[in-house]
Design brief:
The complex is a heterodimer of chains A (314) and B (246). The model of chain A is unreliable at 1-10, 234-239 and 276-286 (pLDDT under 50). Chain A has helices at 4-32, 44-57, 66-69, 72-85, 109-118, 184-192, 201-205, 207-225, 230-233, 243-259, 277-280, 291-312; strands spanning 94-99, 102-107, 121-130, 134-139, 145-151, 163-172, 177-183, 262-263, 270-271. By secondary structure, chain A is of the alpha+beta class. In chain A, a hairpin with a 4-residue loop joins strand 6 and strand 7 (177-183). Chain B has a 7-stranded mixed β-sheet with strand order 6-5-4-3-2-1-15. The longest helix of chain B is centred in the last third of the chain and has 12 residues, at 215-226. The chains are: A alpha+beta (314), B alpha/beta (246). At the A-B interface, helix 10, strand 8 and strand 9 of A face strand 7, strand 8, strand 11, helix 5 and helix 6 of B.
Chain lengths: 314, 246
């Protein structure tokens, strides 16, 4: 029995290693077979390592470590979801939550903002609206919600119970700007869909901040869910070139050229073929002797014969 | 031997090498041919030929007229095709093959530029020795032993265009295009120091950008690092161009 506590202590670390290896293996296999494509700026190994740092400290509602209380399958699935979405848990882009013995990966609103940025969102701004604010929204000619005016009230009137609404303004890469406006009632309805039903300490103490997350989720949802996976492929075909990447690729090209620089010199260069006059003059065929050349040869032969005759006195 | 710069830079390039016997090799015809005729005192009999690096107008503007006036023009297959010119005096060259053009020997080699098969040239003449001519090339993937004279592009200063970029006075795509297709003074110095300069007499910096270069600073850097006679090319400059300075 004396070894029992030690075993329990080691258990999470062993589970961690086994699951991390098997998840990474599966991710690699998927990537190699082309079944999974991850964003180029995402490192699955780093994210998995980060995930285990988080998971070691994560406990379920009975204060038991989730690595012990949750099934291996659910842990593996949660990690796979994290990797496929390209999230990093150390950056609080997703939370691991245990429901009974099932671990789930739940993307945070920051993850949605990051994903939306991958799909063409440039920036998102969120603001709560107080009862005494001068606030006016409208609809532009294309049917987009726009904020026409928002002048916040004085600071002493900004009480959390006075929050009447919240909005998020999204700026896209192409310059398009639109807003998502929610009344506090709509926000509370959304909270009621969740497990805490808007009664968690965070919801009670910081309704403004929580409402901003809600409206951010709603604004980014339409961008993410209507996106294709083009962002994943951009890095292979026709990446948007930045000044830094232009200089970097020049330096890389210079470095590789310097390693195997060809030598140009007059000693090694092959001379150009002399111009083929033959081809331009069809009356001359280089393979046959001309009449002139034949006569010349005949003359030389006759001369040699004459010399031989005089020498040997035939 | 004498080197005359008819013009240099993005508005047009034309360089004249004239030997003591009076024979001329034209490098580039990126100006109206009349300007070259003027620089040659309207004597075209002395022209052995003309070599052209690539088809962009600032290097080839006067090519058609040159051909009409009976000058043999040499260029790469890609350049000739891009020029869409057909003429019996237009002669195709291949990289790393030596061509004899009158008294001059020329070896073309490929350069790094956003055009169709751009060339640089290694030129040899008894008077100017081995002369390297490189323009419009982001970098130089070759080594040249035994150089006597160098004509090389120093288009821009990387520091300067980056400052302009961050000050929002230069568009990003333009910055990237310059970086990918022209030679910075920084790269130019790297090219110079990568080669044996012990026998080099003149280094001529050409194709300086109007707005992204600084002739005085470029002269100083090149002078400090190489310790050689540096010339910054400018319109109308004419310099002795021999194996020795004497």
């Amino acid at each position: 029995m004396s070894t029992h506590p030690q075993q329990q202590q080691n258990a999470p670390a062993v589970i961690e290693k086994n699951i991390a290896d098997s998840v990474l293996e599966r991710i690699n296999a998927f990537q190699e077979s082309g079944q999974l494509k991850l964003p180029a700026d995402y490192h699955a190994g780093n994210a998995l390592k980060s995930a285990f740092l988080i998971l070691r400290e994560t406990v379920d509602r009975n204060q038991k470590p989730v690595l012990e209380s949750c099934t291996r399958e659910s842990i593996a699935f949660a990690l796979q979801k994290m990797v496929v979405l390209g999230l990093n848990p150390l950056k609080k882009q997703c939370d691991f939550i245990a429901y009974g013995n099932v671990l789930t990966c739940s993307p945070e609103y920051t993850a949605n903002e990051m994903l939306a940025k991958r799909y063409g969102m440039k920036a998102i701004f969120k603001k709560e609206v107080y009862k005494d604010d001068e606030f006016e929204d409208g609809v532009d000619e294309k049917g987009r919600t726009v904020i026409l005016k928002h002048k916040p009230c004085s600071l002493d009137k900004r009480k959390k119970e006075n929050i009447v609404g919240v909005y998020a303004t999204v700026e896209m890469d192409n310059g398009e700007v639109w807003s998502e406006v929610m009344t506090m009632e709509q926000v509370r309805d959304a909270w009621n869909q969740g497990a805490a039903k808007g009664n968690s300490p965070a919801h009670k103490n910081f309704p403004g901040e929580m409402a901003k997350k809600t409206v951010s989720n709603r604004a980014t949802k339409s961008i993410i869910r209507s996106s294709d996976d083009a962002a994943l492929f951009n890095d292979d075909e026709g990446v948007r070139e930045t000044p830094e990447s232009a200089v970097a690729s020049l330096n890389a090209a210079k470095a590789s050229a310097a390693e195997e620089a060809d030598v140009i010199s007059f000693e090694s260069a092959k001379p150009a073929e002399p111009v083929q006059i033959v081809a331009q003059n069809p009356t001359v065929n280089s393979n046959e002797l001309t009449d002139e050349e034949k006569a010349e040869i005949a003359r030389e032969e006759a001369e040699l014969a004459a010399q031989a005759n005089t020498l040997f006195g035939k | 031997m004498n080197l005359t710069i008819v013009n240099t830079g993005s508005k047009g390039n034309a360089y004249i090498l004239k030997s003591d016997t009076g024979q001329v090799l034209l490098i580039e015809v990126g100006v109206k041919f009349g300007k070259i005729k003027e620089a040659l005192n309207f004597d075209l009999n002395c022209v052995a030929g003309c070599i052209v690096t690539h088809e962009h107008a600032d290097h080839s503007k006067g090519m058609r007229e040159a051909l009409v006036f009976g000058v043999d023009v040499y260029a790469s297959k890609g350049t000739i095709e891009a020029m869409k010119l057909k003429h019996h005096r237009l002669k195709q060259m291949e990289a790393k093959i030596m061509y004899e053009i009158g008294e001059y020997k020329v070896i073309p080699f490929n350069t790094i530029h956003d055009s169709s098969e751009p060339f640089g040239f290694l030129i040899n003449h008894p008077e100017c020795g081995n002369t390297m001519f490189i323009t419009d090339s982001a970098y130089v993937p070759y080594k040249f032993p035994d150089l006597n004279n160098i004509i090389i592009e120093a288009n821009y200063s990387l520091k300067k265009i980056q400052e302009k970029l961050y000050a929002n006075t230069m568009m990003e795509f333009l910055h990237n295009r310059i970086v990918k297709s022209h030679m910075s003074i920084e790269t130019c110095i790297e090219v110079l120091t990568a080669n044996d300069l012990s026998q080099v007499c003149n280094i001529v910096l050409i194709h300086l950008s109007d707005s992204n270069s600084d002739a005085k600073a470029f002269y100083n850097i090149a002078n400090d690092i190489t310790g050689k006679k540096i010339h910054v090319a400018e319109k109308g400059l004419s310099i002795p161009f021999n194996v020795t300075p004497f």
